[in-house]
Amino acid sequence: KELRNSMEKRVFISYAWTNDAYQKKVIDLATKLRNDGIDVILDKWDLHTGSDRFIFMEKSVNESDKVLILCNKVYKEKADNRCGGAGQETMIIAPEVYEKKCTRKIHSDYNGT
After folding, report:
1. CB-based contacts of 40, cutoff 8 Å, min separation 6
2. For the segment 86-109, what is each residue's pLDDT rounded down to a tens digit?
3. In angstroms, rounded to a whole number, what is the distance separating the alpha carbons of residues 18 and 69?
4. Which pTM was predicted?
């Protein structure tokens, strides 16, 4: 991967796979952010077949400047029950919030659907 501009922000997008239409919205948002000069980490682009998804999630949270959590009912259910990718990312993100009180790094958007 090429070196990123030192002024460029890196954002990891955490979301729950729900349906194709929702995934398209996530990809559209990520594309818009990239077009606006933000280095976006997105599983659809950066997690390759055969790669360890747990290492990918940990690295993505730890190496990003910001974590954007796109919350919907599916994400909330998975996060609350600590299941699926959203649940695993919740376990990785929680210490950032509770131990480091790093609320400036973690942002969420809840659309309720």
Report:
1. 10, 11, 12, 13, 30, 33, 34
2. 877 877 777 666 666 555 655 555
3. 14
4. 0.73
